[in-house]
Amino acid sequence: MKDQLATLAERTRFDEIIDVRTPAEFADDHIPGALNAPVLSNEERVVVGTLYKQDPFAATRMGAAMVARNLAQHLDNLFADRPPQWRPLIYCWRGGKRSGAMTAWMNLIGWRARQLEGGYKAYRQWVLDALLTEPARHQWVVLSGLTGTGKTRLLQALAEQGAQVLDLEALACHRGSLLGAWPTQAQPGQKRFDSLLVGQLTTLDPGRPVFVEAESKRVGQVHLPKTLMTAMQQGRLIEITASQPARLAYLCQEYAHWFDEPALFKQQLARLTELQGKDTIHRWQQLVDARAIDELFAELLQLHYDPAYRRSNPTRHRQAEHRLEIDPGHALDDAARSLLNTLGEAPSH
Question: What pTM value is reported for the model?
């Protein structure tokens, strides 16, 4: 089983990974890159599970008929174009009847299908084990700085220069702040985030540094593993700064979409009532209605973002190795190259 799981990142022994669990199970989490080919729908699994408590034989017979019909549909449609030499790896919840049925039929057809021992449950344990060991294997360069200094944009520029980057906010689909929710995409659940994170960690080269943005232990609704937080706290620290006008202009640009949903925006601001007081929140909500973007974000920087960052910044007790001032509203290629040169990491191109 360990060897099978180790190959998931390499993708060398199998042409495709097939998840035969229900769409709901798949949405909760799945092996990265897997294709969902459910042998039972969400509703069918509930029906079979309910009947099983009353009559296991009847439930098994009913489930077999449902699986057979769904398998036939997948063979006629989803897998119709797979070549004779196709090698799929198939899994369900714990490597039992659902994946066993599909594996058996595919092998009868002539494909070289293999069932993942232990199924998703074994994969999940592998993910948890990897989260305990992978972070300590890497050399971390942590970008720290106040909100609006453009740390995420600098990460992107570093990646374009060939540096290794771990963008935790991209994996979490959240900027990690009060207004950090992405406007068009919901956050993954914790299990899904863990899978995405391990998928990234296992592709990184331990012999090269990895640039990452300083984060608190929670990014939106997902939590970072303690092992990653510890490894980042032991890494090299770079402080990113920007002028107050540059930060304000950048935030006004990045968060302007909130004014398109004023009711939701005001609802988010109301979450700060205990910290800021009713009068302040009422004034901010009035600024939302007036679309006073500059005035509102100037106050948010002064009264919320900067104090909150200083309270929660995991690197606040450390001395930065280097300090780099940037303008987040402009191209950051030169800043990325300068940082790489300062750290002795020549760009790859």
Answer: 0.88
Distance in angstroms (rounded) separating the CA atoms of residues 268 and 180:
10
- Dist. CA 192–CA 171, nearest whole Å: 9
Count the alpha carbons within 13 Å of 188 in the hemisphere toward its beta carbon: 21
What does the alpha-carbon distance between residue 81 and residue 39 come to, in Å, rounded to a whole number? 19
Tell me whether residue 43 is exposed, middle or buried, using C-beta atoms within 10 angstroms of its C-beta: 0 to 12, 13 to 18, 19 or more. exposed
Run of H or E including 213: strand 209-213
Q: How far apart are alpha carbons 200 and 255 in whole angstroms?
A: 27
Pairing of strands 209-213, 218-219: unpaired
Q: Which of 269, 167, 156, 181 is nearest to 215 (CA)?
A: 167
Beta-carbon contacts of 65 under 8 Å, excluding residues fewer than 6 positions away, are none
Q: Does residue 301 have a pLDDT over 90?
A: yes
Integer Cα distance of 213 and 176 in angstroms: 11
Tell me which DSSP letter residue 303 carries: I
DSSP line for 161-173: TT-EEE-HHHHHT
Residue type, 188: P
DSSP string, 93-150: SSSSHHHHHHHHHHHHHT---EEPTTHHHHHHHHHHHHHHHSGGGSEEEEEE--TTS-
Active site residues: 92
- Integer CA distances (angstroms), 202 to 66, 74, 87, 187, 331, in order: 38, 32, 23, 22, 30
Query: Mean pLDDT, to the nearest integer, of 23-28?
Result: 96
